[in-house]
Amino acid sequence: MKKNTIHSLCCTKDIVVVTVQYRIGYLGFFSTGDEECPGNLALWDQFLALKWVKENISRFDGDPENITVMGHSSGACCVDLLSISPYSRVNAELFKNVGNS
């Protein structure tokens, strides 16, 4: 097994990995600019997933006070958007660290 991969770290350290699904493309980012279709539903999906993780991760031996949000490629862009969102500032307890590639 290669060292320092997510797989090897999860097997040798106390790490719980959670992956989430969210709307992409037209369904995730389309907006009409009004209340009918406000847009960025993909980011709201991710916020709700983070809220669920925060509330339930302890059931899987995870630490709700030490959540790291990670992404790769378009997922990394979403992580960046989550980290600068005004909603994240109001709900700062949702995640502690950010990592992306």
What is the structure about, briefly put?
Residues 8-96 form the Carboxylesterase type B domain. 44% of the residues lie in helices and 8% in strands.
Low-confidence stretches: none
Strand content: 5-15%
Helical content stands at 40-55%
Principal-axes geometry comes out as globular
| Main sheet: strand order | 1-2
- Span between termini: 22 Å
Organism: Ancylostoma duodenale
InterPro entries: AB_hydrolase_fold, CarbesteraseB
Domain Carboxylesterase type B: 8-96
Protein name: Carboxylesterase type B domain-containing protein
Structure report:
It comes from Ancylostoma duodenale. This is Carboxylesterase type B domain-containing protein. The chain is globular. The protein is mainly alpha-helical and 101 residues long. It has one domain. The chain has helices at residues 6-12, 25-29, 41-56, 74-84, 86-90, and strands at 68-71, 97-100.
SSE layout:
Blueprint: H1 6-12, H2 25-29, H3 41-56, E1 68-71, H4 74-84, H5 86-90, E2 97-100
Parallel strand pairs: 1-2
Q: Which structural traits does this protein have?
A:
5 helices, 2 strands, 8% strand, globular
